[in-house]
Design goal:
Blueprint: H1 29-79, H2 83-91, H3 100-112, H4 114-122, H5 125-137
Helix pairs in contact: 2-3, 3-4
Length: 138
């Protein structure tokens, strides 16, 4: 702390308006608040961006998980043994006048030939009957 002739107050210091190093301090309080808001929001926007990125990644992981579940379900249905269902469908042809021994032979044939079995199951009853009548002729 200076004492005596070395001590000065702000009143003693002469400030020139032409001073090259001086800065204009003409600003509004609203401008200061605006700058403060910009600075503080830039810090939170990084956090928001990071949270948004994490949310997008979580959504993607969830989407992939759901799709993998759908694929697993489709594979399960695809590999599911359809033999009992096919047997029941072949034996329904007994109502159309085919004997049991013949239908057992048809079932064994279809069990060995997956493509033929799919075609048989896709057909309506009257078309199945036509197929089996041709089968008896061969």
């Amino acid at each position: 702390m200076a004492t005596g002739s070395f001590s000065r107050t702000f009143v003693d210091i002469e400030l020139d308006d032409d001073n090259e190093c001086s800065m204009s301090l003409n600003f509004e309080i609203a401008d200061v608040e605006e700058e403060r808001t910009k600075i503080s929001s830039s810090g939170t926007s990084k956090r928001k961006r990071k949270n948004t990125q994490e949310s997008v990644e979580d959504d993607r992981i969830q989407f992939v998980g759901e799709k993998l579940g759908e694929i697993a379900e489709a594979l399960k249905k695809f590999t599911e043994d359809k033999t009992p269902h096919m047997y029941e469908e072949v034996m329904l042809m007994e109502k159309e006048g085919f004997d049991d021994e013949f239908l057992c032979n048809v079932f064994y044939f279809l069990a060995k030939n997956e493509c033929e079995a799919k075609a048989f199951l896709a057909k309506k009853m009257k078309h199945r009957k036509i197929l089996l009548q041709k089968f008896t002729q061969d």
